[in-house]
């Protein structure tokens, strides 16, 4: 059995299973993300009880970032102050000292899950981007989540500000980086006078698709992925993905002469094959790899 933790900024989703399908279909244990002490205590109590009934070989953690691989912790740059420097490895080891631990960003993990069992299967180079409360991305090359200097942080790339957009941006570090201009929080703040949810014809989605298409072009030009999987709550808005596809194709302008970027763009910018389960299934994949029970 493998434990899986999708550690998000607002809630943590926990599950156990012996296969990705079991984890996907399992009843989840969900804990709100409050203080590290309170949140970790609830999570570890639950896993210790699971471990007593059926021993776990590993736990995989797919965490919000940025993260520090040297200590399997949340990096000090995180805007969530209470979580700065909090180590998942230490928290797990304090309760379960005999199991393997897999650790990566939530988006690298989701990308790995999509590569293993979802929309990015059989792609040598695949990208997963989530557009939700924040924006993040994972890059998978030959089945390995990319760890370089640190890990990719697609949400914090810069995109040209669109004409007439005077919104200062929500990123605490950069202001108007991609996340600052286009994450769910930015949409809410920029259009704070409008009633939610915005209808598909609302100007918010035209601007949102402008920024996301610019981001897609940057990703395509730098990483040359064979597929880009787009998840997260914002992407579920009706019509948004269609706009992003059209604008990405127009911005590329035929420069990369591949069907995927012209006639077949609908099969290139795609929704997750695992729907909303990519994160927790990705955590399972990290755990299964740590336990050496997965390709
Ligand atoms: Zn930023």
Number of strands: 12
Q: Roughly what is the average pLDDT, rounded to an integer?
A: 95
CATH top-level class of the largest domain: Alpha Beta
Distance between the termini: 16 Å
The radius of gyration computed from the alpha-carbon positions, rounded to a whole number of angstroms, is 19 Å
Biggest sheet details: 5 strands, mixed
Shape: globular
Bound molecules: zinc ion
Q: Please give the share of residues in helix.
A: 25-40%
Q: Strand order of the main beta sheet, please?
A: 3-2-1-4-7
- The helix-strand sequence is EEHEHEEEHEHEEEHHHEHEH
Q: What can you tell me about this protein's structure?
A:
This protein is α/β, with parallel strands linked by helices. The chain has two domains: 2-109 and 276-290, 2-Layer Sandwich (Nucleotidyltransferase, domain 5); 119-271, 2-Layer Sandwich (Nucleotidyltransferase, domain 5). The chain has nine helices and twelve strands. The protein has helices spanning 20-25, 36-53, 88-93, 106-117, 178-182, 184-190, 203-223, 240-252, 278-290, and strands spanning 2-7, 11-17, 29-32, 58-63, 67-68, 73-74, 100-105, 125-131, 135-141, 144-145, 227-231, 269-270. The strands form three sheets. A five-stranded mixed beta sheet has the order 3-2-1-4-7. It has a five-stranded mixed beta sheet with strand order 10-9-8-11-12, sandwiched between helices. It starts with a strand and ends in a 5-residue tail after the last helix. It binds zinc ion. Zinc ion is lined by residues 156, 171, 173-174, 177, 179-180.
